[in-house]
């Protein structure tokens, strides 16, 4: 026999942001607690509204089965205290224990229990242990620290197994079948009959307990209202969930605001509606922000919601008036003057004020342009070789985080490739100017009200001030990319400032020893590194990390007056830490693209490579190569060679070619093999090369210079093709030649040949790092 169990914990309003996690926690704790008693439901259904947390456990058995548990205790020779502790744990007496080969064992018989009793014991324990992120005590009981803590005062408990109440009490609140309906639409109380009737009974009392149903209702009704008005709803799943968490009987309503407010940047209006008021944002047929909003009421008003819309409109008008005031006031002061106020803000106690950071970023942005690392070129993108001549990117970043097209005439949408600087505009000057003004909006009234708009508002103010578009765009987008999926800037000035900002943050904090550890990353350095990698790879920018670090250390040396020795040590510390950190972040970034982390390790392991674009090009060519038959078999041959070397020459690896004495050998038809034999005939060898041995030497003589030349030309596919020619000769060598020959000269010569195989392949990557 089985039955469904209903639990409802009713209280005052639960914050919307806590509801989803609370519902998950209740289901998890309930499952774990019942499992301890050997009870398991067929399935669980969870509900949450602003005033109640509920679940239905379907198909609970009406009683648990009797079980027998065995516990191993101390040895029979153990001290009496050990035995007494074991007896307390099991609840048995000594005569009930069993002696098995000098060890006490206890067999505890647990009789079956009624599931109702299991639930009566479990629910209070779950409630008291519930992990709310914030909770409170209330009433007279709150004088004691032992009193119940809950997110808001607990008002009622419904606990029904089948149609019967499960009797228990928590802090004087008895479990029963009585609950409350909608706060305004229903008076009195509801007696719930069973779990099966729970949702329908509450629906008749104007409460929709299913949060997913409330979300669907809000989204469908909001879209219908927008369509009826000739508008379109801007999708916002987070806002749908938040409104569902604020209402038990959601009723979306459409309202309007004064179109004069559309003079304010659209992102400001959108944030005011969404963040401050929890309203949905709409756009017109042209895609521009509409002077309309949709709010979600919790009642069906007798006037159809007219008074609710008017009230919400008045509140919104006050908010938008504040925003317009901030906008107008901020524009009265030039960004250059705003920037001077950054002197009052500490960036970090060891790194000075924000103005100090701005100075470092400005110098670095100019240097990136003057050194040709960031260039203004109409031909951007391509492979590593093309990037060396220009760098750049294939697409431009989106103009701003808003979904709507701006109505503000000052807004400059990024809808195409950035124009080159106008006559008289030097790219380095523009980059430095943008860097010096990029943080200026941090002290504006608008960013003080909406921190989410930093950078974006700076771009608006720069354009309103008449600064060049390239500068305004760079100020607006210099924080990008800020996360996975964010647009990556490609406009030269923006790239220079964004790179400089992120690199300065990384190197500055690394210089003072503030590096991420484990899950701790208080200064978001991992995000800064990923953003840097995206800028470099998207724009194919050829940037040597060592070169950047030298510039950074040199600039710091000039500012601090550090000695040459101190500067050298600082460079060494920063170089090692930075390259290792970027290698780790590169693996994280490329995982989504399907690039194997062990291949990145294989290329990094050779050392001396800190151009991340070139490194990644090599990695991708390597990944393609090792998936071929030639690559797979060559890797197997390499590992066989290395394993032999590890055993025979554990302390050293010889990189020189074979040398020895040779007698006349068999006639060979392959000209390359014959040439290899001729070379060895001139050496003091004491044995005749085996044909497969000579063939491998010939293959190496051809493959090594080809691979080196290809790598120098950054033709990594060509380098892999050169290595691929070694696959058959290596296979034939291992099939036909005994490396550990009894003749010491032959053995040493062939071990040297294996060393040469290793060295040839290490021209491309350390194949020992490759898994599989």
Give start-end ranges of low-pLDDT stretches.
Answer: 378-418, 652-670, 672-684
Give the terminus-to-terminus CA distance: 54 Å
Q: What general form does the structure show?
A: flat
- Into which percentage range does the β-strand content fall? 5-15%
> Considering DSSP H and I runs of 4 or more, what fraction of the residues is helical?
40-55%
Report the strand count. 18
Structural class: alpha+beta
| Mean model confidence by pLDDT | 86
Cα-atom Rg, whole angstroms? 36 Å
- Tally the helices: 27
Largest sheet: 7 strands, mixed
Write the layout of secondary structure elements.
Layout: E1 2-11, H1 16-36, E2 43-49, E3 52-61, E4 67-75, H2 80-90, E5 98-100, E6 103-110, H3 115-128, E7 154-161, E8 164-165, E9 169-170, E10 173-176, E11 178-180, E12 189-191, H4 198-203, H5 211-228, E13 232-233, H6 237-244, E14 251-256, H7 266-276, E15 280-283, E16 289-297, H8 306-331, H9 335-340, E17 346-348, E18 352-353, H10 354-370, H11 384-389, H12 427-437, H13 445-449, H14 456-464, H15 469-477, H16 492-511, H17 525-539, H18 545-560, H19 564-591, H20 597-604, H21 612-626, H22 629-648, H23 671-681, H24 691-712, H25 716-724, H26 727-736, H27 744-761
Parallel strand pairs: 7-10
Antiparallel strand pairs: 1-3, 1-7, 2-3, 4-6, 5-6, 7-8, 9-10, 11-12, 13-15, 14-16, 15-16, 17-18
Helix pairs in contact: 1-3, 5-6, 7-8, 10-12, 10-16, 12-15, 12-16, 14-15, 15-16, 16-17, 16-19, 17-19, 18-19, 19-20, 20-21, 21-25, 22-26, 22-27, 23-24, 24-25, 24-26, 24-27
Properties at a glance:
single chain; 772 residues; alpha+beta; seven-stranded mixed beta sheet; four-stranded antiparallel beta sheet; 18 strands; flat
């Amino acid at each position: 026999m089985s039955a469904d169990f209903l639990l409802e914990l009713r209280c005052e309003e639960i914050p919307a942001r806590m509801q989803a996690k609370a519902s998950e926690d209740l289901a998890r704790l309930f499952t774990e607690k019942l499992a301890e008693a050997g009870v398991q439901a067929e399935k669980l259904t969870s509900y949450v509204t602003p005033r109640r947390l509920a679940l239905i456990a379907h198909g609970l058995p009406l009683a648990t089965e009797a079980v027998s548990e065995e516990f191993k205790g101390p040895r029979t020779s153990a001290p009496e205290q050990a035995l007494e502790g074991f007896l307390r744990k099991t609840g048995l007496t000594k005569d009930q224990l069993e002696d098995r080969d000098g060890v006490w064992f206890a067999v505890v018989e647990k009789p079956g229990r009624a599931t109702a009793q299991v639930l009566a014991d479990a629910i209070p324990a779950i409630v008291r242990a519930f992990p709310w992120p914030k909770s409170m005590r209330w009433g007279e009981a709150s004088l004691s620290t032992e009193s119940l803590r809950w997110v808001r005062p607990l008002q009622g408990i419904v606990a029904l197994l089948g149609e019967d109440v499960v009797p228990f009490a928590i802090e004087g609140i008895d479990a029963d079948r009585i609950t409350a309906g909608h706060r305004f639409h229903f008076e009195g109380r509801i007696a719930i009959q069973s779990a099966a009737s729970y949702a329908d009974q509450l629906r008749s009392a104007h409460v929709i307990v299913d949060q997913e149903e409330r979300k669907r209702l809000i989204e469908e009704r909001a879209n219908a209202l927008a369509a009826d008005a000739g508008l379109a709803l801007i999708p916002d799943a987070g806002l749908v969930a938040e409104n569902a968490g604020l209402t038990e009987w959601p009723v979306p309503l459409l309202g309007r605001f004064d179109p004069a407010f559309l003079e304010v940047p659209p992102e400001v209006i959108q944030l005011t509606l969404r963040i401050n008021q929890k309203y949905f944002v709409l756009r017109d047929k042209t895609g521009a922000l509409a002077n309309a909003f949709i709010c979600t009421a919790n009642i069906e008003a007798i006037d159809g919601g007219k008074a609710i819309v008017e009230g919400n409109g008045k509140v919104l008008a006050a908010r938008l008036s504040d925003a317009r005031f901030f906008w107008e006031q901020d524009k009265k002061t030039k960004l250059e003057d705003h920037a001077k106020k950054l002197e009052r803000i500490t960036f970090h106690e060891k790194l000075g004020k924000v103005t100090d950071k701005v100075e470092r970023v400005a110098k670095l942005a100019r240097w990136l342009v003057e050194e040709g690392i960031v260039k203004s070129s109409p031909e951007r993108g391509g492979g590593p070789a093309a990037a060396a001549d220009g760098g750049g990117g294939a697409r431009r970043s989106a103009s701003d985080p808003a979904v709507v097209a701006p109505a503000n005439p000052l807004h400059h949408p990024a809808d195409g490739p950035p124009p080159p600087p106008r006559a008289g505009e030097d790219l380095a000057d523009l980059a430095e100017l943008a860097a010096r003004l990029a943080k200026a909006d941090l002290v504006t009234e608008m960013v003080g009200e909406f921190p989410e708009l930093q950078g974006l508002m700076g771009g608006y103010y720069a354009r309103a001030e008449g600064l060049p578009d390239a500068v305004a765009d760079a100020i607006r987008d210099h924080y990008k990319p800020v996360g996975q999926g964010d647009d990556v800037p490609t406009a030269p000035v923006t790239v220079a400032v964004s790179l400089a900002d992120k690199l300065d943050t990384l190197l500055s904090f690394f210089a003072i020893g503030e590096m991420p550890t484990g899950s701790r990353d208080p200064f978001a350095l991992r995000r800064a590194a990923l953003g840097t990698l995206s800028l470099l790879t998207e724009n194919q920018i050829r940037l040597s990390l060592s070169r950047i670090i030298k510039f950074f250390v040199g600039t710091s040396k000039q500012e601090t007056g550090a000695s040459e020795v101190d500067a050298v040590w600082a460079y060494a510390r920063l170089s090692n830490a930075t390259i290792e950190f970027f290698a780790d972040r590169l693996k994280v970034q490329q995982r989504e693209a399907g690039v194997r982390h062990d291949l990145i390790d294989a290329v990094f392991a050779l050392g001396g490579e800190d151009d991340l674009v070139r490194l990644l090009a090599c990695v991708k060519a390597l990944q393609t190569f090792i998936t071929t038959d030639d690559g797979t078999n060559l890797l197997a041959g390499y590992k066989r060679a290395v394993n032999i070397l590890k055993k025979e020459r554990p302390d050293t690896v010889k990189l020189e070619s074979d040398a020895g004495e040779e007698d006349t050998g068999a006639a060979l038809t392959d000209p390359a093999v014959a040439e290899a034999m001729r070379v060895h005939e001139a050496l003091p060898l004491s044995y005749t090369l085996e044909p497969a041995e000579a063939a491998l030497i010939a293959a190496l003589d051809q493959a090594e210079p080809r691979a080196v030349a290809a790598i120098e030309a950054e033709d990594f596919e060509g380098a892999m093709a050169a290595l691929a020619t070694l696959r058959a000769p290596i296979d034939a060598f291992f099939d036909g030649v005994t490396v550990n020959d009894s003749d010491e000269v032959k053995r040493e010569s062939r071990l040297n040949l294996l060393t040469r195989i290793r060295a040839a392949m290490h021209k491309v990557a350390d194949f020992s790092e490759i898994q599989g």
